[in-house]
Batch of 4 targets.
Target 1
Amino acid sequence: MNSPDTLDRLQVLLVDDDRIDRMTLEESVANQRLPYDLTTAASVQEAIERLGDAQFDLVLLDYRLSDGTGLDVLDHLGSTPSIFITGSGDESVAVDAMKRGAYDYLSKDPDRGYLTVLPVVVENVLARRRAEVALRASEERLRSILGTLPDLIFEADREGRLTFASPVAREILALSPADVCGRCLADLVVDADRGRLVDALEALAENGSEVRGLLCRVARADGDERIASVNARRYDDADGTAIGLRGSIRDVTELERAARALEESRALAARTSRELADARAQATRLSAHLGRSSDFQGLIGRHPKMRALYEKIELAASTDVAVHVHGASGSGKELVAHAVHNLSGRRDAPFVVVNCSAIPETLIESTLFGHAKGAFTGATADAVGYLGRAAGGTLFLDEIGDLSPLIQVKLLRFLQERTFERVGDPAPRTADVRIITATHHDLPALVRDGTMREDFYYRISVFPLEIPSLKQRRSDIPLLAAFFAERIGKRLGKTVTGISAAVMESFVEYDWPGNVRELENVLEYACVVAQDDTVEFADLPPHFGGIRRALDGDGATDSREQLREVLERHGWNRTRAAQALGISRVTLWKRLKACGLSEPGAESSPES
């Protein structure tokens, strides 16, 4: 038999009940060495059996057979070509056979040279079959090539209806090529992109405007959506009349996603670069400021913890996010809030301070949000409320941990939606106000015990600012003490030029549970009592008597333990310990010697 790709010899089946005709044709084939192999059958039944056993390239059918006619065999041939052989006068039958699929017919009339003409007809069929085999092989090679291309190659008629689609249709459209054919090209894309594609195809059909790289979203049969690049050209007949369209569809989803990701990365890099430049500029300004003074928006200190706080204050001031200030009582939470306000774009608008713990529970709502006339007994006129007073500026809510859950809910609504309602007035109002909160409480602990709503906690503490206690920044105590002494002295009309070294040492050693406020109060008392321009131990308030006794020798045990604590905190490095205490190394050595205190295994000397 022949291979699918070649056709060297034709396989021919002769169906004829005349034994002499069969033998004559067999001898003719053998004598002339014709390029085909001949198999014979004498009846309809035998012909059907032969067709079931082998494949043939050509079937010669005699009309009259012993058990039927050649037409009975014709129905079993499928696509196999056949030549009908008729007797004289049977041409009408032969024509009917050709209508039913026969390739040609021959007459057995001896005068027409039946045996002479038959080889020529068979050779024609052989040429046709060879052309069909070559065409199939060519189509198969083309199909194989198209299957390796990333593009869906298509052909469509003038109206854009697809007549051919390459195998890649399965990957791009989730449809087989057969399912694609018959559909309009424009129906393959989503509704939002269909109009652009239709316009482009109509222009192409009318004037030949080439479609190149038209991006459309393709709706796949599985519900997925892909981004495709459509290319198309018009092809014409010999007269220049448009016949249809040919083109390609390429899936560029990943390329487009990568391009978008690249653009987003570039935009993010540019934004980050700008933010970094702004941060560096802020750091430069802050460094320059700190290099000139220990004062930052009323906050005094050069300790690293304070420098870090100044930087965060500038960052907070550059945005409008909710800021929460946490610190022990007397540490300067209001000063920090005021610094954020003064450095922000709201600096020229009001800065309103509310101490939540100082307002009775029954009045807190109307105090914050305002009330309408007649809202309750005693409401004789409309009241704006603190939110209204702070319009355009900043509302600082100190001791926020003392608010009830009801007020937390109302404030949460304002923080999220910028709307609120006055007491006795259901009409919603808006206010452009920045909220800064503060407390000395441990807010996460309040959330855990149910005193504070978790959503309210997260909303007010978007940008937390932690103020170090005075105990955590002892090196700043001399700066603060000198600042307060000078300022209070001027206010009292007294000249206070300094603080004695012994008093300053006691200040540095003291833990200051009341923080900066306690230091200021102590110095205010001392400045009132002081009889000359220097603050001495005799000028300090009574509760500092313990420190006086310690330094005078009455409390040597307390002083010894305080020194040991400072030295252990600094790994017994005397230079750092002396700096933390605000005294010299020699003074520290004298104190150690007086207390009989030394590092285990080391000699006590000023140089050690």
Target 2
Amino acid sequence: MAGLLMGASAWAQDSYTTLYEKTLSGGTAWTADDITGWSGTTTKLSINASYGLYYSSQNTDNAYKAFTIKKNSKIKYEITWYFGGAVGRTSNYEYLQFGDNLRIGHMSYNKDNPGGVYLSTNAGTSYESTTIFAENYNTRYTKDLTIIFDTSTGEVESFVFDGTDVTSRISGALSGTFNTLYMGFTRGGSVSWDNPHGLVALKVSECEQTITNADYTVNYVDGVGNALKTAAVRTGVVGNYISLLGTDKDPIWVDTDADDVVDTKFIYVSDNASTTEITGDGTASCNVVFNVAPTYSYSFKTSFGTTLASGSTLSGETVSIAIPRYVMNSGTFYVYASAANNITYSKSMTVTSDNQEETVSYNDTGYDNVVYFAEAEDITGMTRSNEGQGGARSSMCYGAYATDNVTVTSLPAGKYTLTAYICGNSGTTFRFYAGSTSNEIYNIATTGSLTSGTSTEFNLTEATDIIIGAAGEAAKLIDFIYIQKTAEPVTVTDAGMATYVNSTYDLNFSETDIKAYKVKVSTKGTATLTKVDEVPAGTPVLLVKDGGATESIPVMAGAAAVTENDLVVGTGAAVPTTDGAGNTNMILNKVGGNVGFYFANGQTVATNRAYLHIATTLAPDAASARMAMVFGDETTGINAVQGSGVKVNGSEAVYNLNGQRVAQPTKGLYIVNGKKVLVK
């Protein structure tokens, strides 16, 4: 800044006269009478011996006091500020404001994300993203701050907070006046201030300046000098350079085609203010240059790469989208990384470059058995609403209610659980049914906030519709539902054996009557069956249950891989006996009452079934031979599977389970050479 023209010395310029002073004690001590000198909401102001003039409130209120100063003076505020405990949401602040625009606000988040003191140069419309003082959560503070404003230039000459000079955080001139001090609260939601907010000490001083003022002009032009809006005429100090306001660089919208529609956006490019000296009245002018804002493409993408939304907008514009709490993608169920019951599910970004992307972070829930997921507003027959917490707390910023019974989906046979998220004032119960309203599987009542719950396991023996009963209203809503499969029905016929492939779920056979086996052929003509408890999706196994059965097999997550398994998944096509590459295929069949693996001979194997694929050197020699099967897991109590033609040769005696010798066994369990043998 150029030197000021003044009638007194520099020392005289820095000489301040006290206009107002209050402290905790002595002749300047706060008294109850001081409250009457303040304006605004003064009924909540009190005087306290420890923290002076304090203001305790849970509402958006402020009290203020104006001071009379001479033209072009400097004004200095020296304050000891008491604050702390404004705990709640990011839009809740306790603040001090100097003049029309400069505000410092204290905000606390929570113990995991403490806040601090933030700076605003637009009266709290927005705050800087970094603190000028970082707090410890829920702590009371008493801090000193000194601010000097030069009213002749609109600039902050000095700003010291808690011993730290933060003057550089405020660049250029501020608009408005500087002679009023505000103390107040900004409340963005339900919150409790645990501590008072006060002025322990306040001193306001004035320094008169003898200067020469002159008018200057700020022009707003495009790249070729055409005026975009009316020039601003302001007053500055002769000898200084022009100082722009922050708003001088704000985008300008113009009607460029005379159709009475303001449709063209111009954005700031450059200016020559800092090199233009104010030399006399009306002699100085500067140009603030703008160009037409380009149009940029943007997209919001999940952290796993899918696009939530995309579009285009003008440079500098902020775009917002509603985002889902959960996303199903390629069979994986993801949850928003910041998911909570007290956040708004929206995401914004200011677009400043082409093809700009904003990532919305999601984590894998680990739920591998989600068979159905839907936002309630997307279910046909539901009525969408964003009233109440429908907009404030719900996934995608909407929920829905049912004016009539609504069919959600149809589920195949199996066991399931249903999870629902709902919101709204208490008094409404949402009910879910399977097949008809006489078969309720779950109900959940509104509580006044976003809440959720999960049903107990329910069993469907056939394909069944899931129904939402008529309930709710515009502010009592279902947010979304998801359904998890907990068990899969599996059938083994009376043949006692079946190959099986479940392409969707990991299954747990550890506590079931039907047992699962992997099959490995390492000895010519003999297959070893080894029991496996966990079967990952897409893994072929051999199921065994004497006499056959249908059983619900529990669904699990993260089943251990099955290795050393010669079973392969069917393709729904004919399977040749040999593949021309030295391998032989064998299919589970029942021939002459004997169940076992026989040569494929072009038979078809379905995609939910399996067959043996082995080296030809390991296959039986006879074309009609059956692969012998041996149970490698002694814990089954069965050591081998034989056909009904078991031979008694020499000392090879056969006994039934009652210990009686049998000359020619038929089907069932027998003891042969001290080992259990299953005869098919």
Target 3
Amino acid sequence: MLVHRPALYVGAFVALSLATGLVGVTLAALQAIFDAQTPGGPVVVVNGGSFSRDPVDLGGIDNVLVISATVSTFVGILVVASAFGFGVAMRRRDLALLRLVAAGGGQVRRLVLGESLVVGTLAGIAGSGLAVLTAPLAGQALSGGFSPVPLTVQPNLVHLLITFAIGLVVALLGANLSARRAARVRPAEALREADLDTGLVSAGRLLMSVPLLVGGIVMLVLAPGGGAEASTPLAVFGGLALTAGAAALGPLYQPALARAVLLPARGTMGRLAAASVGTARRRTAAIVTPVFVVLAVTGVLSAVLGTTQGALRADEQTRQRAELTMPDPSAGGYAAARATPGVAAVSAPASLPIVLARDVDTAERRIASVVDLPAWTATTAVDDLTGDPGPLASDEIAISRDYSGWYGFRLGSTIDATLFDGRTVTLTVVAIVAAGSVGPAVMVSPDLAPNQVEPPRSALLDLAPGVDAADVAGRLRAAGHDVHTTGATTGRSAEDAANFAVMVIITGPAVGYALVMIVSVLVMAGATRGRELMTLRLLGAGRARVRRLLLCETAAAVTVGIALAAAITAASLLAHRSALLREFAVAPPTVAWSWCVAVAAAFAGVAGVVAVTTADARVRRLSASAN
């Protein structure tokens, strides 16, 4: 069957090869990241743990790679499952003939699983080779734009064995349900004149999808009450669970939705397209599912993460009391700002790496904020400050309300802080501050370790009432200091560009697999629809009208996929935003619209072009054979 009908397996093979190749590259990149995270600077040992003052900070690249590989594997399983399911549906008559000549259900099931094993083996080999070829390019890309240190990415034998094994596992998982369906094909199906869509959803798929749907709904219902931090995984995994459950049940409802989309269509071809998408339910669902899954994953991730960042950004702006900002202030600039008439307070938080011993067994490295506490509270809107609001002494520490709640510290509690010069100082908690997202977890005095403090990145200037900010800024600029109005330079464009790049890394490969799946389904469908389309031509339908029929069908399927993805994205966004609004005054809903629109346009364009060209080629071949 692999030889006689290769089109049934090409899409699954290509998608699986790309998915396993990405996993291999990810494993090699994670190994390179682990090797690069060597300690830098002095090292201290606290409560049995070793802590470095200057560890390599790779900015969460490892998390992005893991998420990308997970999303790709998730989509890869759905793509392979959809490909094999559609392939089994197209071969129902062939499988029924096998049953008619006394092949048992177990033999048919083993046949399909054997085919998936062959595809998985070949895809695992191809994916391993792809990982070897592309890993150096991935290392160059990460080193050039994301990693602060050069990364040498090259998969080893262990990475390649894992890559190969994943190819086999994903292929078998994706084909398992299809193999069971194939085993239930009845011999009488070989005698049918028409291919009917029956048994669309097996009991196994139903049992799998219902818990996913229920679990997704429960997570989204719980998300608003979980707080901003707990709501993030609930909203993300709730949306993904709903996506997987709804995709598994796709053949039951997606064709009806596609038919409803085409009900307003006018003309004979529009009505035929509506009837076609409603009747060929597996074909319609096989086109809708990849569009739906990829756009839903993209929408949920971008909505949850983007809205969180928007809420944090808005909270930071709301809490900003300072009228002027001095970037990278020198000691002279800091002193000049404090001496300028009309400046009420100058806050220039600096950083100090320390190790805090939370108890006799646990310690953690923290970047403490070195602040003048009265000046900091003057330039930052604080919800609540319990304790001493005055300057911190060298043996005192202020903590955030969240840090107090996490670890049980109260006013008067003591925390042992180890500095990277080897000293250990016992700090007393004298203040607990609630300042939303801008409040540091721990704040210490500049006198704690003045020689180890890292320079501040900016200074905030709070002006006395009635003082003209432009006048103060002009004086400081005249003295040679860089000053600008607060909020004029926010760095949003760079941050937004980085976020967009992360979204492309996470979901870009999945988009490729989905496009491969759509092309494969349309090619397989075109191979079986030649006589149907040829009949339309013989009945007087011109080439343009047939093309309109095909475009209407693909447009309806893509539209349904987009609509379903939008619905799940909206559900996750609303649940997460409700949680954010309990902690932040503003949480602007944010979605990666440009990327989502580009992906949707790619799906629509590729589906339309492939459907038309495949059908045209098939009709031409049939016409040539008839002549």
Target 4
Amino acid sequence: MIGNLTQNQMEPPFILSLNTAIIVGETGIETIEPARIDIEELYHYSYTMLMKYSQSFIPTLREVPADAAITSHQLMFRAGMLRKLSNGLFAYLPLGLRSFHKLEKIIREEMEAIGSLEIKPTVVVPGELWKESGRWDAMGDELLRVKNRLGGDFVISPTAEEAFTSLVRDELSSYRQLPISLYQINTKYRDEIRPRYGVMRGREFVMKDAYSYHAGEESLDETYQAMGRAYRRIFKRCGLSVIPVKADSGSMGGSGSEEFMVESAIGDNTLILCKSCGYAANVEKAGCKPDFSPRPSLEIAKAAAASTPPIEKIDTPAVKTIDELCAFLKTNAQSFIKTLIYRAVNVELDLNSAPGCAKLERRKPGPDAPEVCREAFFAVLIRGDLEVNEVKLAAALKAGGVSLAADTDVVRITGAPVGFAGPVGLSGIPVIADMTVTGLSDAVTGALAQDLHYAHVAYGRDFEPWLLTDVRTVRAGDRCPLCGGELYEKKGNELGHIFKLGYKYTKSMNVSYLDEKGESHIPVMGSYGIGLDRTLASVIEERHDADGIIWPITVAPYEVIIVPIRYDGAVKAAADRLAEDLERYGIDVLLDDRNERPGVKFKDADLLGIPFRVVVGDKNLAAEKPSVEVKRRTDKENVLVELSRAAGELAGQIKADLAKLNG
């Protein structure tokens, strides 16, 4: 007994004094001398069982799987971390799961450090909750809807706003309970039409989702900023270089939104960055400095058009595209107004006063959900040299999605073949104009008839839009909206995303609390997600070479791999003793005890990417000072280290590496 504790009541570690550490393990009590471990590190000490390669399940591959298109997919399969069950469905094997659990640990530590509390909702969620929020229909085919044996609707959760909000709604009553910050690390499912790139875009995946509820915007902003700082720490601890960018909230709704991206040649996202300042945005959200003279009001636009010749109809036989028109009229694309017909679904924007929308089918997905138009068409105008940003357009319309209308719909709406649409005389449909159109007082447009266009078309004089907004796709070479510097592009993958959701879910799902005066209010909400599978794959994408993975020490499945040249006799004894010494420092060790050629073991060690390799051989053990060869995964050469000092030196290097990433 020590003090009032018996051995059975102690959990490792236990500090007896400033000079002695007592470790309680399955084999009894062991004393560690102070020179071998810092007192502070005892709180992170773990007494683990030795893992031998022969007892593990690490089915490495020499060949690259045929369907593995990107590095992380290839290496996770080759290193025996992952196997595929079906298209977009992957199983983690023991090696991969060890790294996955270390990533989970980092995330939990950072979430708890900012006061977010973990819960575990179900993956299968009642469909009624999604109907309350209005997303049962708005989410589209990516939402996997199922029925149980009683005919009830359920959702295999792709995101958890509804589940968390329902749980909070049932418990929240007073302002004294706010703010609330909860998170999960949970499996999710999205019925991707084209899953690809291994776990980078699978159908089933794991995410950390946090949701916060507040009495006001100031409180929400505090949590939003704290989450942003926590995310930066999480990715730093994983050894990742992330680019925080302004982003679109998409179907999640809300106002403020920031994504955390990693640069990637196969990235799903285009990042717009400034060469001169810190501006960074997803192309879906990016803005730029105007390269035109905007007319902020119709009166100013009409005045600017006073000197423009009257509108003129011109014959353009067999000319439909902007490039063809430029050649035919001997002008440039900046002189054209491009008119595109778009179909939007599940539109929440009020269309009651919009042209041609009086008879649109409307419905309320839930008792308190906003009214939605299932389908509506819009004419979208933009300067001829630019492209419409469909994400911005969907956001402006508060639509579940937008797409170019089918040719038959274009003909029906415009009365003209595809390629001849224009705003002059167009009726029965809302016209949405990009801001660039306001700078055109002498433009060319389609004339709503085959082989005909209008010249000298002036914004404000010859047509007026129903809605004026920014739907421009920003591109490399545009000017920064902050400093005017040149913008450039990078490809990136999203790892994390934080949102200020506002009242989208708390209002539609009837969440309320009473303030100090007994008055009822709706809480404001935030949402914060990290994709764990993507993060792990991105570590490999960023940290690898021709031989395999190069794990950072924080998420490596093992920190040291011991490779005996031949696992018997003195070599076996030295390797076993070194493994035990390392484990006393709390270091994760893999001992390669296989009866394989040294070259095979070395290749596997490099492929697995374990940060430190220790080679134990007869020759070095027989030297005057028995030694082993120590090699960092990132170094080219081995270093001879005395066997008696090897464990201590490795522990010091690992401690330094951890401090660098965790600091």
